[in-house]
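Blackboard transcription, Thursday session:
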Amino acid sequence: MATQIEPEARDSAELFREEVRQFIADNFPEELKGKGLSMGGVEGATKESPAQKSWREAMGGRGWGTPTWPKEYGGGGLSRKQAAILNEELARAGAYNPIGGMGVMMFGPTLLEYGSEAQKQEHIPPICRGEIRWCQGYSEPNAGSDLANLQTMAEDKGDHYLVNGQKTWTSGGQWADKCFAIVRTDRSDKHKGISFLLIDMDSPGVEVRPITMISGTSPFCETFFTDVKVPKENLVGEEGQGWTIGKRLLQHERTNLSGAAPGSRSGASLADIAKKYGRVSKDGTLADPVLRDRIADFEIRWTSFLHTARRAVEESKAQGGVSEISSALKKLGTKLGQERAELTIEIMGLQGLGWEGDNFSPVELQGVRAWLYGKATTIYGGSTEIQNNVIAKRVLGMLDHQ
Amino acid sequence: MAVLNEEQEMLRDMAREWATNESPVTEFRKVRARGEPEAFDREAYATMAEMGWAGVIIPEEHGGSDFGFLSAGLVIEELGKTLTASPLIATTLAASAIILGGSEQQKSKWLPKLAHGEAIATLAIDEGAHHDPDAIEAVVVEGKLTGTKAFVAEAHGADLFVVAAKDGLYLVEKGDGVTLTTRRLTDQRSHADIAFDGAAAEKLADGGDDLLGRVLDRARVLTAAEMLGMAQTVFDMTLAYLKQRVQFNQVLSTFQALQHRMADLFADLAQMRSAVEAGLQAIDSGAGAERAAIVAKAEANRVLHTISNEGIQLHGGIGMTDEYDVGFYLKRARVLENAWGTTSLLRDRFASLGGY
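(Written on the board underneath:)
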């Protein structure tokens, strides 16, 4: 099963590794060591320090923030193997990929597949350089899980569309430059009446209102469109093809969300937290045998989930398509993330339920917000119930209710 | 499904074809009807050995193919799907103990016979109704083993026992000083208590202090592989049933409540498969094998438990009948859940390995 690397291939891999190391040594500012993304998330406004800016420009200029995307549009043009080497070397240096967000995770891959040449030339390079942020105009107040029920109307006005309607759960909408949206261009057909449109967020008539969540943060927005003019060249694919394109984008989203279980990447293990907040026996084991059992149960299932995520990647690579278990990953990963958060606050007791104040540590306060925010993970990106429908119908071939 | 090489794919396809055509559950029904304590078909086992399945993990110089545990697991999974009764797992595990701990002389004597199906062997470890490798009382004094073993699988057909004594693992041949008492369990397979009364015992002296532990890792993953095949079949069987059974003028599979339960089982089964395959691969690579084996068996226990119960429930009344196969899987499932560690024992060991 071990793949033998040919001698020349090994040499070229080693040469590339050298190149990456040199690049990091020349460009990665020491002060950013161990710090996270600047453009990567939708959690806050972009306030780049000079060091962050220079690192983003260095990586973006090389195309290495989007390592496997085509070089002609500003990507890195790297093979998967080279991209893996790049990641390893970044991690080794305590560096990070400064380029991310929805443009990279969802929109870019979709536009590369469906966009016109002109659209790719216009939109992909700024994503690769991390210069602009995209947000997602999908959900509407009456079209959440029943996504195709959307009502935002784009009326054909000859050289432009006139957009009217309301989107909701626009993650990072208040900080975004552009929005990829699915809109209705025809009322007579639920699915074929949908089109995929790119909207500038600073267009007249676009209004964004952040929604405060139970966690106290406002990463999501309501977005209102009132007589917004969108040029015809911002239509991706054909008019009426939006549902097909939109679903493809959701596959990218799903793949990215399964691993996004909050707390899954935090440093301390549940056992460490339990040792810190609970009683420990003389032999170093947890004094509460029930809790110890529950932690082991969780960790066994979590280990098994990580194996499953890895298997899905291996299978996709081997088959050249999406693994049939990828649809189960989002459901499994988000549920486990929530379980972990619940177990964490339970282990901490009331000390783990603080809202604010100096008598709670930053980790404790953050944990509470993460626990609450994490409730969204089984709702957004296709709720668990929707994933169940997808598995039942598309994978298992169970019929629609007649 | 793990990404397989060509040899592994051929091995799996051959096992699948043979199990489907030559060893469907009706063959197990015949074994059950005969009621013999050894509870497997000798001819069928000879065929398996001819196809090389008894020697998958045995080195080539001793008559095997040395394909490793992932490959062995593929065969076992296919046989698990049709509940094929055979001493294949037991013999493979006994062989693995000899490979890990036997002298050259012990290997040359036994491994070719095991690989070719000329001898059958099994592990005799536990002394009570619960798997508990820390509670072994059997002792060997001057090459003579004394003690009792409980619920030994495939004991009736075995020519050779790999027995855990206080100070290590021993080879004991069936014969003087070895007395079997049959234990009929719900799965209708071969199980027996064994009394060893001064039986000649030869130590597997080259395996180091943790030989038993390493053999148990292998026992856990291979058993989990059988359970994976069983879980897959119960799932497939149940899905097929829901697609054809009509109630309230509707095919059952159109009901969302049932669709979501099947989606849950599908996700669970995906996790079980990953855990089992990772366990088999860890044995082959040698990295983190103990932990991976615990995860594999614990997940197999959890998921097969759920799927075997749901399999009955979703079939409704017909699932309760002896005529229908699904009940056989439930009964075998509970026996295997007890083999080499119940879920709570495995969690305890997992926590200990993690230092908490």
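Lecturer's comment: The radius of gyration of chain A is 23 Å.
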